[in-house]
Specification:
Layout (H helix, E strand, L loop, with lengths): L1 E4 L2 E4 L51 E3 L9 E5 L1 H13 L3 E4 L3 E5 L7 E5 L4 E4 L6 E5 L8 E6 L13 E3 L10 E3 L11 E7 L2 H6 L9 H4 L1 E12 L4 E4 L14 E4 L4 E2 L2 E9 L19 H5 L3 E6 L1 E2 L2 E7 L14 E6 L5 E3 L2 E3 L11 E6 L5 E3 L2 E5 L1 E6 L7 E3 L2 E5 L1 E2 L6 E2 L5 E5 L2 E2 L2 E3 L2 E3 L3 E3 L14 E2 L2 E9 L6 E3 L6 E7 L4 E2 L13 E3 L12 H9 L3 E4 L4 E4 L4 E5 L1 E4 L10 E8 L4 E3 L6 E6 L3 E11 L2 E12 L3 E6 L3 E6 L14 E4 L9 E8 L6 E11 L7 E8 L20 E5 L6 E5 L1 H9 L3 E11 L6 E4 L12 E7 L4 H6 L22 H6 L14 E4 L3 E9 L6 E8 L8 E2 L4 E7 L3 E9 L8 E8 L2
Parallel strand pairs: 3-5, 4-6, 5-8, 6-9, 7-10, 8-18, 9-18, 10-19, 17-20, 18-21, 19-22, 21-23, 22-25, 23-26, 24-27, 25-28, 26-29, 27-30, 28-33, 29-35, 30-36, 33-37, 34-38, 35-39, 36-39, 37-40, 39-41, 40-42, 41-43, 45-52
Antiparallel strand pairs: 1-2, 11-16, 12-15, 13-14, 13-16, 14-15, 31-32, 44-47, 46-50, 48-51, 49-50, 51-52, 53-63, 54-56, 55-62, 56-61, 57-60, 57-63, 58-59, 58-61, 64-65, 65-69, 66-67, 66-70, 68-69
Length: 945
């Protein structure tokens, strides 16, 4: 099944092996458990631009071309700072627009006493290039201490920590996630207002969290600051309704309150360019604490950033990469830090790749993505590489942020002066001071790891409790300098659910464990591949936004003369079928050798009719608002000479070694078991025999044995061998009399999907050409767990989908049309074509072959009988037993003979009415596709190339 959101289709595997005990089909939003005492998975689906309810916009204009309109130099020869800033200012004066940087290199640097090179201070501004690797912004100054290349800054009045005059106290303790806020006075607020929901750090709060190091520093630790939009104002009951739930408990004791917070910037985009910084020339002075020494190289680059957003909401950075400017011999892309979000809400960073800082020392250097006091932001498919810290989440106002499908690669590194040096810090982490309720979802550690641990470091107040109620969901470890892929040691509870890959260990210990008691919740380490849902964020967004999802179903095989498939895609919205939701559905053809017609292309259920044999890939798309879900299905239309048959074994059983079991028969068991741990008393082998009589005298195109495991354990090496003796009996075979096995057919391991497919094509061909019987033995060569018995469904299994089917796709050995016509020497040489009628009896040669008549002798036209039943009719005709693959026929319809417009009739069903020996009497059920009183049909014959 494929799910798309924001016009980007993404794969969402939905394996059914296991669910978290904290997030299963009974989960509801928001959860009711207490932040103070309970375990809870929150609803993280609000993260990103406009809560994920709208796609990232593609702003058309007005366009302010920095080159043609303002004189910027795309060759990188002259400094373009003033020219690009003039374009930004012009866009701001016009109320917004796109500052366009055509392909080229643009040199910028801070002007005068500015602590930035380029700055945006108005809403609705987009800086757009022609793409990474095409448009380059190069900052040419290395004297960048506490400076930023592109600074997006909202007004200081929009600071979240600064209360406004319109403020009201919260009147009840809010202990669980909630969107309903009871207040002392709601009269000063209006629907649509942006507010801050706030709680302070008090002495009581510090003591409640067992953090004595923070006593005396309460005002410096931070505040709970939830930036929210009002969706409801009830002035009668004094209740405010906010758009996104709270993320930690708020107590009246801690001065919990709500106040207006206007003025923040919005709708700002940075997109489609590369950005980098000229390296610092210093050969030394790059040690971890050199940032604070004016005589060291690191001093000039300390706390510098490429991009910074402050006090900004509903904006984006899309497809922006760092790069190594020409002349950077140290291979650095940037001096210290990549991008920082400060007091930002609803920002989306998508498809960004930041890497290779020159400096990675202490004091906040060498990080690629920093989320600081920001909420509900989304990093989607972003990569941090070769840095001190890849992605950091910092401080108490950071909550509800989601890192989705992000990769942290090669942390603990900086380039220094020579290209590579280790740093004292590493990993992607929750860095300090109680960030909380964030989600790291299906992210990857590649020579790195993810952390939310206790960190008693830094200047007072120490970092200490770095996180609470944050979730690591389905983390993949490719490699790690530590033994683990996740280290979670959070206040209250943290959650690690599902790990996968080469490194799957989870660490929950660390420094000051008494302050983080109880131990965090860990579940499913090493088995994240079968966690459902595979992505928590995608699943929650699908449910809340009622996003469309579609499953087109399994592959379909049609055997000629069938050429119409019934399609019935399962369409859901938010995981629930709901046909009342407004959406559009469209079937189309991705690939195929011929034409396809759909009886109802705008409905989930339709007939697809095919004009010739081959493999067709059909696509169904479901569109709701701006989201598109799609899935594909393959339809195999087989020619007349091909067949597809699923054979059950005529006999299957297993044999069990051991004094008490060697003479026992298991032929009626619903399971077929095998085991081998070097102990003969528990060793088991599987035997099965297939009758191939139905496919003899045919060429095997494929023959696949399908085994269905009864348990998820897959860690064994197995082997299938040929058994030449077919005389064993299902109800008599045991370990003592089992037949010998000889030739190795296949080595395999059970599949994690619980269904294993074994290719037996060559052996089935050999045995069908021989005695028509195929006997097999399956055995374990080695296994990891000594306690596992590998069991598969037998032919006695009550659920017929769990039985061991041998599915054979074969081609009968049939004369071609050319060989057939050559068998009639009386037919003149020039009249041997498919459309010729040498005997002038009204039937062409191809019709004569189909209907098993003589093309060289006058014979009456093969009879075609029609019988109506009110909703269609039955068409009966004679067809020879076998036809070559190049012949195909189908029934077409037209409402007007003069127009000549004919289309295949959908939903035709063929059946054999009578076996006539060398021919068959076929009966085709033809539905009336239009209900018209006047309609025409024809039986069309095709000789394919």
């Amino acid at each position: 099944m494929l799910l798309a959101a924001a016009l980007v289709c993404v794969h969402v595997p939905r394996a059914s092996a296991w669910e978290s005990v904290l997030y299963d089909s009974s989960w509801t939003s928001p959860p009711t458990a207490s932040f103070e005492t309970g375990k809870l998975i929150q609803d993280f689906s609000y993260a990103g631009y406009r809560r994920g309810e709208q796609p990232l916009p593609s702003i058309a204009g007005p366009v302010f071309n920095a080159v043609s309109g303002y004189g910027a130099d795309p060759t990188g020869t002259a400094d373009s700072t003033v020219e690009i800033q003039n374009a930004i200012d012009a866009a701001a004066a016009a109320g917004g627009g796109v500052v366009y940087l055509p392909a080229g290199t643009y040199v910028v640097q801070p002007q005068g006493s500015n602590n930035f090179s380029l700055q945006i201070t108005s809403s609705h501004i987009v800086i757009r290039g022609d793409g990474p690797g095409q448009t380059f912004i190069c900052n040419d100054s290395f004297d960048m201490r506490a400076k930023v290349v592109v600074d997006v800054m909202g007004p200081s009045s929009a600071n979240w920590r600064t209360p406004t005059a319109t403020s009201t106290l919260i009147t009840s303790d809010l202990m669980s996630p909630t969107r309903t806020i009871p207040v002392a006075d709601a009269s000063g607020f209006t629907v649509g207002d942006w507010v801050v929901v706030r709680g302070d750090v008090t002495t009581a709060w510090v003591n409640e969290h067992n953090e004595p190091d923070w006593l005396g520093f309460e005002s410096q630790v931070g505040n709970f600051l939830y930036y929210r939009k009002l969706l409801g104002v009830d002035t009668v009951n004094d209740i405010l309704t906010i758009d996104v739930p709270t993320r930690y408990y708020l107590k009246t004791r801690d001065n919990a309150r709500v106040y207006l917070k206007p003025g923040i910037l919005e709708e700002i985009g940075l997109e489609e360019f590369s950005i980098g910084n000229r390296q610092h020339p210093g050969a030394t002075g790059w040690d971890t604490n050199d940032w604070d020494d004016p005589l060291k190289s690191a001093y000039q680059v300390h706390a510098s950033r490429l991009l910074q957003f402050r006090r900004v909401r509903d904006s984006w950075v899309r497809n922006v990469d760092t790069y190594q400017p020409a002349g950077n011999t140290s291979t650095c892309h940037l001096l210290s830090n990549g991008v920082r979000l400060f007091q930002c809400h609803g920002l989306t960073l998508e498809d960004c790749h930041f890497q290779r800082p020159q400096y990675g020392g202490a004091g906040g250097n060498g990080g690629m993505f920093a989320i600081t006091n920001s909420s509900e932001c989304l990093l989607d498919d972003c990569i941090s590489e070769f840095s001190r810290h890849g992605i950091t989440i910092t401080n108490m106002a950071s909550s509800g942020n989601v890192l989705y499908r992000c990769r942290d690669k090669d942390t603990g590194m900086a380039t220094g002066a020579a290209g590579s040096m280790a740093t004292t810090g590493r990993s992607s982490d929750h860095h300090q001071k109680f960030s909380h309720s964030n989600l790291i979802d299906t992210c990857i550690a590649d020579n790195s790891f993810w952390e939310a641990k206790y960190r008693p470091f830094g200047a007072p107040p120490l970092h200490n409790l770095t996180a609470a109620h944050s979730v690591f969901w389905n983390t993949e470890g490719l490699s790690s300098p530590a033994a683990h892929v996740v280290h979670s040691q959070q206040s209250r509870y943290g959650y690690v659910i599902g790990t996968r890959g080469a490194v799957t260990l989870v660490e929950t210990g660390g420094l000051s464990t008494a302050k983080t008691d109880p131990v965090d919740h860990v579940e499913g380490a090493g088995i994240g591949d079968t966690l459902t849902p595979f992505s928590l964020f995608e699943d929650q967004r699908l449910v809340r936004l009622e996003l469309p999802a579609v499953d087109a179903g399994n592959d379909i095989h049609l055997l000629a003369p069938e050429n119409s498939a019934s399609l019935a895609a399962a369409v859901t919205f938010g995981g629930v079928p709901n046909p009342a939701i407004p959406a559009t559905i469209a079937w189309s053809v991705d690939a195929g050798p011929g034409a396809v017609s759909f009886s109802a292309p705008a409905q989930s259920a339709t007939f697809a009719t095919f004009s010739q044999p081959g493999v067709y890939v059909l696509r169904i798309e479901v569109t709701k608002d701006f989201t598109v879900a799609f899935d594909t299905i393959a339809v195999h239309v087989h020619p007349f000479s091909e067949g597809l048959v699923s054979l059950l074994p005529e006999a299957d059983s297993y044999a069990w070694n051991g004094a008490a079991t060697a003479g026992t028969n298991y032929g009626i068991s619903a399971n077929l078991s095998m085991k081998n741990v070097g102990n003969t008393s528990v060793e088991r082998e599987i035997y099965m025999r297939y009758d191939l009589a139905a496919i003899q005298n045919s060429t095997m195109l494929s023959a696949i044995l399908e085994l269905h495991a009864q348990q998820p354990d897959i860690e064994c090496n197995a082997r299938t061998r040929f058994v030449s003796d077919d005389s064993w009996g299902e109800l008599t075979i045991n370990w003592n009399n089992k037949p010998n096995a000889t030739t190795v057919i296949a080595d395999w391991s059970p599949d994690s999907s619980l269904t294993t497919w074994i290719d037996l094509t060559a052996r089935v061909q050999t045995e069908s050409d021989g005695d028509g019987k195929l006997s097999l033995r399956h055995q374990v060569l080695s296994q990891v767990s000594t306690g596992t018995v590998f069991s598969f469904g037998s032919k006695e299994r009550a659920d017929d989908t769990q039985r061991p089917y041998l599915t054979v796709h074969y081609q009968e050995n049939v004369d071609s049309f050319a060989a057939w016509i050559a068998g009639y020497p009386s037919v003149p040489t020039g009249e041997r074509g498919a459309a010729d009628d040498p005997d002038n009896d009204g039937s062409t040669n191809i019709e004569e072959m189909v209907h098993a008549t003589d093309p060289g002798a006058d014979s009456s036209t093969p009879g075609i009988a029609l019988e109506e039943d009110g909703t269609g009719f039955f068409l009966s005709f004679v067809q020879r037993n076998t036809l070559p693959p190049e012949i195909f026929y189908f029934i077409e319809t037209s409402s007007d003979l003069q127009s000549g417009t004919w289309e295949p009739v959908p939903g035709v069903v063929f059946e054999t009415a009578q076996d006539l020996g060398s021919a068959l009497l076929l009966r085709a059920r033809v539905p009336d596709p239009t209900g018209n009183a006047r309609i025409f049909y024809r039986l069309r014959y095709v000789l394919l190339p």
